UniProtKB/TrEMBL annotation:
Higher taxonomy: Bacteria, Pseudomonadati, Acidobacteriota, Holophagae, Holophagales
Function: Phosphorolytic 3'-5' exoribonuclease that plays an important role in tRNA 3'-end maturation. Removes nucleotide residues following the 3'-CCA terminus of tRNAs; can also add nucleotides to the ends of RNA molecules by using nucleoside diphosphates as substrates, but this may not be physiologically important. Probably plays a role in initiation of 16S rRNA degradation (leading to ribosome degradation) during starvation.
Entry's EC annotation: 2.7.7.56
Protein name (database record): Ribonuclease PH
Pfam families registered for this protein in UniProt: RNase_PH
Organism annotation: Mesoterricola silvestris
Source domain of life: Bacteria
């Protein structure tokens, strides 16, 4: 069992899609997600004439991303509620990263496709999508629109694991997530203009096996922010930010 402060091994491979303005294959343990960012010189009809850009996302899992084959949602003719919820989370999280007015009337679409799923796919998607987004803005000369770093990590409480301090664990893989008494996803933001304290974009927390105290919630939040800080350091190296 790894220490509570340790996340799974992380790799951020950039430039994996030849035709995307920005792309990143994020490997977080055995969870692998291919993220791409596409820029288009248009915005949704409801935003035309406002002089602002827009960021949206799509999320999906490849049929053999899990232990058994899942039918493609396109074949079913509709998206599952989980898929819709996750892609909305990715979109609203990454909108925190960009000054939409500085972007101009440009739409940036983030595609996150899960190649292998072993827990934390939504968090890995957000972390990798930020890298793809930053690279796409750099490729178009729109770096000025990038105002925040955004990363996400899961955190939880595992009961009956004496090796874990207070039962806390960072970056849960599937089996850990499945057994967790408390399961959380944290999205954090950090200004790109200089050192500053991380702020919370979203903190999704659920007592799967039991309720949890305010003290435990604070401990989970602190551990998650520490994990996001480490992810952001890797992000900066991937896009060569200072």
């Amino acid at each position: 069992m790894r220490l509570s402060e340790e996340s799974r091994s992380l790799a951020l491979e950039t430039g994996v899609q030849l035709h995307a303005e920005g792309s990143c294959l994020v490997r977080l343990g055995n969870t692998h997600v291919l993220c791409s960012a596409s820029l288009e010189d248009r915005v949704p009809e409801w935003m035309r004439g406002r002089g602002k850009g827009w960021i949206t996302s799509e999320y999906g899992m490849l049929p053999r991303a899990t232990h058994t084959r899942s039918a493609r949602e396109a074949a079913k003719g509709r998206q599952q509620g989980r898929t819709v919820e996750i892609q909305r989370l990715i979109g609203r999280s990454l909108r925190q990263a960009v000054d939409l007015a500085a972007l101009g009337e440009v739409q940036l679409t983030l595609d996150c496709d899960v190649v292998n799923a072993d827990g934390g796919t939504r968090c890995a998607s957000i972390t990798g999508a930020w890298v793809a987004l930053a690279l796409a803005l750099k490729a178009r000369g729109l770096e000025r629109a990038l105002i925040n770093q955004v990363a996400a990590v899961s955190v939880g409480i595992l009961e009956g694991c004496p090796g874990l301090r207070q039962g806390l664990i960072l970056d849960l893989e599937y089996e850990e997530d499945h057994r967790a008494a408390v399961d959380c996803n944290l999205v954090a933001s950090l200004p790109t203009g200089g050192a500053s304290e991380l702020s919370v974009v979203e903190f999704q927390s659920t007592g799967e096996g039991r309720s949890f105290s305010r003290t435990e919630a604070t401990a989970l939040l602190d551990l998650g922010l520490k994990g996001c800080a480490a992810l952001m350091e890797a992000q900066r190296k991937a896009v060569a930010l200072g």
